[in-house]
Amino acid sequence: MSVHSILAYAVAAVSMHTASGTTAYPSVTAHGMGDSCFNAGMKQITELISTTTSQYAVCVPTGDNLISDTANGFFMTMNKNVDVFADKIRKDPKLSKGFNCVGFSQGNSLCRGYIQKYNDPPVITFLSVHGTISGVAGFPHCNPAGLLGPVCRTISNISGAAAYTSLQDDIFQVDYFRDPFSIQTEAYKTKSELAQWNNEGMTVNATINENFAKTKRFAMIKALKDTMVFPNEGEWWGHFADNSLTTVLTMKETDWYKKDMFGLRTADEAGKILFNTTAGNHLQFSNDELVWWVNNYFVE
Q: Containing H/E element for 80?
């Protein structure tokens, strides 16, 4: 889920674009699994956003160097990563009046988590590029609904049984693993960090909805040939139906939309949810596409 794959696939270096100054706000970027704010790829992507907006942009790490920032993307919990992310944002005076949050792959869990747990200073536009926002129900390159379905479904079922245990306290990726066969279980409702974010747990946190409403725009980018995020409809707030690894629900078919569990339906009815696609695989997009998203979705 590294932005290095973007650069290898799309461009050799950051292209120079004419700054259009479409936003009055700075931007924060959040990197994916196996990547780091200290890597050249994330530095270039962040610089491109700054050049495009003529505003300050910064990649916010959850570690203090390349090794710890990369490791925390695996061995620090999702909630703890969000808390560190929020603390660093709040200590940056240039972000004090609000900012746009641009997430890549797993980094979108940081943007989403910040919005729902904090959102002060507020995220103005959340640009989610191939995000894990709805959780995943399969391993990278192992689509439960694909050619290797029987094998991948078996792996997913085994993982689901283990996910809602003490592993929630150890591994980032487990925290957004959403097993369709476990949604109604006590283990999922009490142990899953994602369940709490979705208000699918035992209690309802109204603050999540209040914070979600503070963001003006959610621009969701889906990779049409994604082999990392299953189902890739999750990049558009969808997911597998309960008790299925083959039936995929769109955003409006999910319970969290119908019941407005965390404010998604309210945001959609206010015209805040926007959708776009890329033609290729996970994190395969061009600089021109990124600049277009920034120019069109950051407009206030």
A: helix 78-90
